[in-house]
Amino acid sequence: MTVENKVERSLFDEVMVPCYNPMEMIPVKGEGARVWDQQGREYIDFAGGIAVSCLGHCHPAMVDAVTEQANKLWHLSNVMTNEPALRLAKKLTDVCFAEKVFFANSGAEANEAALKLARRWAADVHGPEKSEIIAFKQGFHGRTFFTVTVGGQAAYSDGFGPKPGDVTHLPYNDIEALEAHISDRTCAIMMEPLQGEGGIISPTSEFVNTVRELCDKHNALLIFDEVQTGNGRTGNFYAYQGLGVTPDILSTAKSLGGGFPIGAMLTTNELAPHLKVGTHGSTYGGNPLACAVAEAVVDVVSQPETLEGVKVREALFRDGLEKINEKYQIFSEVRGKGLLLGAALNDEWQGRARDVLVAAGKEGLMVLVAGANVVRFTPSLVITKEEIEEGLAKLDKAIASLV
């Protein structure tokens, strides 16, 4: 590589919009749950590209799928359809409640489609006055203006002018607040079946069942945002399957493509016709390349041994984090399910989640945060026992450096 073409972290500040603050290291290669940077330094990946790399880096099934499709057909647009899109749609409807699929490119787009469908259904069936969307504080549903408004974190939605209206935010897991507020004007409740960005907060069984019951009582739709929880992340293919509560609309993205951008909105035969021809669309949605890769991902993740393996790996993480905590007294609890886990910092360590992330990076471990007080782990679903042990050892060293 010539000197003038050498890519350094300083180039980010020169050419990129500053809405991110990436780490100094620049990864150039990945395999399984390992990543190497420009200097050849190796890292264990407990971040998974924010719950995206569900099969790790460069999984053979994904590489084969994209290579084969790249030699056939890249793009058509939705003026036509294509084989990978139809095969993927059938596979998705086979593994969950849904009967119809709309393809998009991201979680935000999948959620946008879900919200538009809910509003259109309510207007068509009940009239324009039934338009309220209830969502939950600390929720996260994407960065488009509609989805970021429905998300319950004002810091992400303030400062961009007037917001889409008729959106109400209530406390997560607060049954009384929901019962007191919901009415026949409510068109939909949108929720994560396990809050991700908001701190890895699981719903109580009573709460999630009451949400479903209240939706039925008030003729409102239940939308599950499974962008982060879906595709095996919790040990079920979709998290709702472990909760015993079925939504009317479900959004999926992140790990659906295992690293190739794709999202989908899943719904029923009853609701789908309200997005008739011309009401919604996407130039790249259903792209043959993306769908071919996602097919391979679904084939691997939906295998019983993959889903069972998630639960085995969760136990390894919980055991390892407990041993670390016995030494350093840093965590108040480990939250979450499957391989969507959050280690909540105790009172003495408040506000230091990013300190742990940075220290881990120095030891050759990639982790995430979920707010200022939770260290988040969303590794590959097929990460090896050895890689888990090696990564936890690096986390131990990182925390030791901070004590």
CATH architecture of the largest domain: 3-Layer(aba) Sandwich
Residue windows where pLDDT falls under 50 for at least 5 positions: none
Report the β-strand fraction as a percent range.
Answer: 15-25%
Number of domain units: 2
Instruction: Please give the CATH class of the largest domain.
Output: Alpha Beta
Radius of gyration: 21 Å
- The amount of helix comes to 25-40%
Largest sheet: 7 strands, mixed
Task: Name the shape in a single word.
Answer: globular
Class from secondary-structure proportions: alpha/beta
- The overall average pLDDT, rounded, is 96
Spatial strand sequence of the major β-sheet: 4-10-9-8-7-5-6
Please provide the ordered H/E string of secondary-structure elements: HEEEHHHEHEHHEHEHEHEEHHEEHEEEH
| Beta strands, count | 15
| Termini separation | 41 Å
Number of helices: 14
Task: Give a written overview of the molecule.
With 403 residues, the protein is of the alpha/beta class. It has 2 domains: 9-59 and 304-401, Aspartate Aminotransferase, domain 1, CATH 3.90.1150; 73-302, Type I PLP-dependent aspartate aminotransferase-like (Major domain) (Aspartate Aminotransferase, domain 2). The chain is 38% helix and 17% strand. It contains 14 helices and 15 strands. The chain has helices at 9-15, 48-51, 60-70, 83-94, 107-126, 145-150, 154-157, 175-181, 205-217, 240-243, 288-301, 304-328, 353-362, 385-402; strands at 27-31, 34-37, 42-45, 100-104, 132-136, 167-170, 186-191, 221-225, 249-252, 263-267, 331-337, 340-345, 365-366, 368-369, 374-377. It has a 7-stranded mixed β-sheet, with helices on both faces. It has a 4-stranded mixed β-sheet with strand order 1-2-3-13. Helix 4 runs parallel beside helix 11 (288-301). The protein is globular and about 60 Å long. Its EC number is 2.6.1.11. Belongs to the class-III pyridoxal-phosphate-dependent aminotransferase family. ArgD subfamily. It is found in: Cytoplasm. It comes from Vibrio fortis. It holds the Pfam family Aminotran_3.
